[in-house]
Amino acid sequence: MTMNINTVLELAGAVLGLAGLISSLCAIRAVRDWRARCLIVESSLSAVRRELALVGSISLKTGHRLKRVEHEYSGVAERVDQVELRGGSQSFDQAIDSARRGADPGKLTQQFGLSRGEADLVARLHGRKKSA
Question: In this structure, is residue 119 part of a structural domain?
Answer without folding.
Answer: yes
